[in-house]
Amino acid sequence: MRTTSPITVGRAGELAMLDSALTDVRARQGRAVFLLGEPGIGKSRLAGECAQQAGALGMPVLRGRAGAGGTGTPFRPLREALASRFRLGRPPADPELEPYRPALARLVPEWRTAEGPDGHGCVVELAEALLRLLALVGRAGGCVLVLEDLHDADPETTAVLEYLVDNVAEVPVLLLATLRPEPGPGRDLVRAAERRRGATVAELLPLVADEVRALAAGCLETAAAGVPDAVVDRLVADGDGNPYLAEELLGDLVGSGTLRHGEHGWQVVGELGPSVPATIVQSYDHRLGLLGAQVRELLLIGACLGPRFCVDTVQLITGHDDRSMFAGLRSAGEADFIVPDPAAPGWYAFRHALTAEALLATVPPLERAALARHAATELERADPELRDDHCQLAADLRLAADDPGGAAVHYAEAGRRALAAGASGSAVALLERAQQLAAVPDRTAVTESLIDALAEAGQLRQALTLVTALPPAGAASLGVGRRLALHTRLAWCAVTAERPQEAAAQVAAARALLDDGAAPEQRAPLAAVESHLALLPGPGDPQARQADAERLARQAAQVAQRVPLPVVACQAWQLLALLAREQGFDHADSYLIRMLEVAETHGLGSWRVEALLRLGMNECMRTGEPHRLDQARQASLQLGSVRVTQSAEGALAMNAVLRGEPQAAREIIDRCLGATARLGNLATHRYLLLTAATLAAHQGRRREMERELLAFSQIGGEDFFLMPVLLGLCRAICALLEEDRPLATAELAAARDWERRNPNVYYLAGQHGLHPLLEVLAGEAGWDRYQEVEAGPAAPLTWNGQFLLLARAVLLGRDGRGEEAEQAVAAAQRCAALFPMARHLGLRLVAEAAVRDGWGDPVAWLRTAEEYFHALDVPAVARACRTLLRQAGVSVAQHRGGRDRIPPALRAVGVTLREYEVFTLLVEGPGNQQIARELSISPRTVEKHMANLISKTGCQDRAALCELAVESCAAEGEPQV
Questions:
Q1: Are 320 and 332 within 8 A, CB to CB?
Q2: Could you tell me which CATH class the domain 522-761 is placed in?
Q3: Which pLDDT score, from 0 to 100, does residue 503 have?
Q4: Would you give the end-to-end CA distance of the chain in angstroms?
Q5: Tally of CB atoms within 10 A around 357
Q6: What is the CATH number of domain 12-203?
Q7: Are residues 39 and 23 in contact, defined by beta-carbon separation less than 8 angstroms?
Q8: Which of 220, 226, 227, 304 is nearest to 255 (CA)?
Q9: What is the pLDDT of residues 256-290, one digit of tens each?
């Protein structure tokens, strides 16, 4: 009979801890809790109690279990957990989840769209996606994610779990996981989380004698005193305080008749028998014998597959028809061996993990091996392709059948499939096992696949070590072509990781394999890698390296287009587009369009998005418009590439800074900064920090700028491509808004020196617009300098063009060509329409020269700039504008409270708040006496205000001024002056 305690015994402290965790989560404080203990100690019982309590509180509960489908099945417990909640539904419809839907489709295939990705992607992106989803699920009152048996979890699940543990405090989620304390990645994760205080770890200890007595009393439905002392002693001695073993022993005693319930309660009849292992095994053997051969076979095959098994897989192996299969399952369930798995339809679970182990222990080792061999053979026969999890399952069965060679073949194939699906961690684990088991002649091919998996998993150093450790005979067996491809792939991984030394070593190894007879298609992939390597920091003249990069990229592109080699073509066009900016952005775009066409023709989704992203960035630099960049962002969302999406959003944030949209820029920065850090997307994370510093600089907030730059520098801010941005677009602008023109010029000069030593492709940092303007204003540059910059490829870029036009205006005004100078200022204003801060800063700068040289309308320009910078709270520039106005001999309005009520057009001509009050009363046409009474001022003061208004607005007389007041009122406060 089955004897199970209806109550949880001896776990009061753990239950209180879980209750406290649920309370914290409901208060929006996430928690991670690990229950650690040997099989049968009560981990699942506690997890079930917690899930039941959460459900009673209305908290959603998601449950999954590892170790059910063979070694290395990626994301098994996470898929089950989401299926337990969303099996028949769609993901929550929330804009915050939009970038992560494709990643979540890796866990719930039903969420995949036709245009979406094929399941590849970064594990960290998936972890962030799951964190966002859980945050939405628990938004109302928290939720619980229960993951069991994580000692058997695949590397991908372990990586996701580590990420969740580090970040769960930010979301209303209780992460509750169970695992055995055996050595492995799961235990390492728990210990690391415990050391950094990221999780609560509860190690379940064996029950003491009184707790065992209470457990037995609960099972026997009697008082504690009603349990015979001899039974308690036996349960304590042979069960070692393990609740599962105690219940099994008690059940065996009752089932065998040794413990009976009679007139005087429970009594022992006869001897209690031998120790626990033999007793339980004998008990299972006896119970199996009562079920019949077919049910016995079903249970033993299921036990070979693990603590849980898929009905379809068992049916595939046994060949039973549906009727026989379900009859056997029903009999096994009635005998209390198995139960349907509520979290996974079509699956059954043994009542406990030890149940499967005990069932296998009922047959001798040779028979177990024969059973596993039979299962593997039938599985291979019924499903020759070994689809889905069958490949890994067949490998496990071959290993259990003492067939290491057969197991190695299946593990290697499963590893290659995992790598193709983007599960590089599982691929490494599977291929390492295959390498250990494979016979010597087959080991080299497995090692080649393992090297690829290690590189894809970011373990580049281990991959490179494995290459050098290949025995000469093994390396030779790969053949020149395969060895060349292997070194080229590793070199590309090193280049993209910005590790030039390792990349150069792999390039050298590949070059050594090439001879004069090497085919062009062998040389082209290496040339593409070398072209990118030439642009990384390294020895030699930067200009010569850049020329080498262009030459190699052209060679690669020509071959790749002819053969074709689409990936190589994309690599080459990408680099050529970067370099082609020096010949003009239309030229650069022509390369990117070729790259886009290749990617679309050959279905290279990631390269397509990369081309769209770079086209969008070019448009932003050329025109200031972000439309194409936003399209690239949408394409990256469809692809499911969170990192590319973040790159696009970083560029959009910088564009918003330049366009004077601080709220939009701040929203992107705040939304993406934490995610880029969690995802390890350091390039975009650095760029966002620099964008935040630039945002502060463009508002004249030096202290805030320096704080952001400090954070930038602390994570490797000496970035090869970002230094000109830091100096020219950030620090120099801040200095100008502090009216420190010498400092601004020095920052721009430092940026120019940096660019000379390290040619780069970012053209908005000042060398092609702002710096020449300051040089012209300082009298340090003339027409020669202007014409030199104007002839360059970056002059047509809108951001640069506004400053170049102002430099032209200053030079024209200096030459006495005032009318042409004023036209140049008007053109600059039109060019700067998208950049309000830069537009008004330009007016302030050019007005000073106009006052000095006597041309244009510097008073109006200064009034406009003063109003803008006063409203922006940039006092230094506003004060400088007022000083220049006084030097020009005009009055300067004081900024009293309520001045923002004055329409911009009237503020621009210097109308004061009191004058505006007079102006508004003119709508009804009153006389001066009436206005004086209304405003409690003297008629003489009204006359003075009227004269000032007529002069400032350009009206001919009082009647025209009254008409203007009426028009202003009709236009809702926007008079046409």
A1: no
A2: mainly alpha
A3: 86
A4: 97
A5: 16
A6: 3.40.50.300
A7: no
A8: 220
A9: 788 888 888 888 887 665 444 455 676 677 777 77
